[in-house]
Write a structure and sequence with these properties.
Blueprint lengths: L1 H14 L23 H8 L8 H4 L3 E7 L5 H13 L6 E7 L4 H14 L3 E4 L8 H9 L4 E4 L13 E4 L2 H18 L7 E7 L5 H15 L4 E8 L4 H14 L5 E4 L2 H13 L9 E6 L2 H8 L5 E4 L5 H12 L7 E3 L4 E3 H7 L6
Bound molecules: beta-D-fucofuranose.
């Protein structure tokens, strides 16, 4: 009954205008914004049918360079597909695509090759936040605008990039804690000391730093949580499994797992099962991304909640490129629409999930 109430609250948040929409939030403070877009609406927005038509006047395709982090996760595949679906010749583009296989140096090389190719805009999904100034200065000197997508960069000079499109990772972390806290309260566990393990993604990537900051800050507000483990699985299934196996050798006594992406969660679930621990029951599992397989795991009762990170950025990035090249003024920071899901929502929405 209590669990049902909790699920109902969550459904209401998602469907009745109070979802975890974190758009336009610079500070990462406000975690619930009262403006909801259903998954279907998001999909409509994210899959704009508009053709780009740069070719209309010049008859030439617009050369774009896109350097992707790698192919480490289901989220990443969806992100790459979203870009490739929009940057097509039919839409007036010629795309140079580089998969950097998680290697920042390869990304720097790719940017230099895009500059040599004289692309009209560069789209960069950086592996980590640090170390971009030099190569971005080279792009700026060549007059090529750079759009940063997904993870952020740290720079002392904001003029080195045109804008950034991505997720408010800190708000995702805060939302994860708020979901947990409601769940714990509704299960009558609020007087218990709940032991928490955090499985981080790639250290130094803003998806990791932001989610970690949000989780720590969120948990500190309450007295019923104690962080007993803080490990990393580099955002991959194998490393997530391995990190959890190693951790279980030293401690099996914990109640909650925050796992910073679905792929690591799938690995961690295998490790927990191998150790005789029931995921979703003995340990409450809160994951991030919200890929379709994770919806299935929620339905199977192995993931308790999933904090969406929206990878369908391609159409937004395309629109921004058009605006940048038309010298329009832009908001420097552009957030995606995102929600929080649990088992009951997963049952209703799995059919609509496109990735
Ligand atoms: O959560 C993870 C991916 O940067 C938001 O990177 C992205 C993260 C995403 O590998 O699955």
């Amino acid at each position: 009954m209590i669990k049902k109430i909790c699920c109902m609250i969550c459904i209401l948040l998602i469907f009745a205008g109070c979802s975890a929409d974190i758009s336009n939030n610079d500070s990462g403070q406000s975690i619930l914004k009262k403006e909801y877009k259903s998954i279907k609406e998001q999909r409509k927005d994210n899959k704009t049918e508009k053709n780009v038509n740069f070719s209309e006047n010049s008859g030439e395709l617009l050369k774009i360079g896109f350097c992707q982090v790698g192919a480490e996760s289901g989220w990443r595949t969806a992100h790459t597909n979203s870009m490739k679906e929009i940057f097509t010749e039919t839409n007036g583009y010629q795309l140079s695509f580089v998969d950097a296989n998680g290697n920042k140096d390869k990304q720097i090389e790719a940017i230099r090759s895009f500059i040599n190719e004289k692309v009209k805009a560069i789209v960069l999904a950086p592996v980590v936040e640090d170390g971009w100034d030099e190569v971005l200065k080279e792009a700026k000197s060549a007059g090529i605008p750079v759009i940063i997508v997904d993870r952020m960069i740290k720079t002392s000079d904001d003029s080195l990039y045109a804008c950034w499109v991505g997720s408010n990772f800190k708000a995702e972390g805060l939302n994860a804690v708020e979901w947990l806290n409601e769940y714990i309260k509704s299960n009558g566990d609020d007087n218990k000391n709940n032991k928490v393990v955090i499985l981080r993604g790639t250290i130094g990537a803003s998806a990791e730093t932001g989610r970690t900051e949000g989780i720590y800050e969120g948990l500190e507000k309450y007295t019923r949580y104690e962080i007993v483990g803080d490990i990393s699985g580099n955002f991959t299934k194998d490393e997530g499994k391995q990190a959890m196996e190693e951790y279980l050798k030293i401690n099996k006594d914990f109640d909650v797992l925050f796992s910073q992406n679905d792929d690591m969660t799938f690995g961690a679930i295998e490790a927990l099962k191998d150790a005789g621990i029931k995921p979703g029951k003995d340990v409450v599992i809160i994951s991030f991304d919200g890929v379709k397989d994770a919806f299935q795991s929620m339905i199977d009762g192995e993931i308790n909640a999933d904090i969406e990170c929206n990878p369908l950025q391609g159409p937004f990035v395309s629109e921004l490129i058009q605006k940048i090249l038309a010298n329009e003024n832009l908001e420097k920071i552009q957030y995606m629409y995102e929600s929080v899901y649990d088992e009951d929502v997963a049952k209703q929405e799995i059919g609509n999930r496109v990735y």
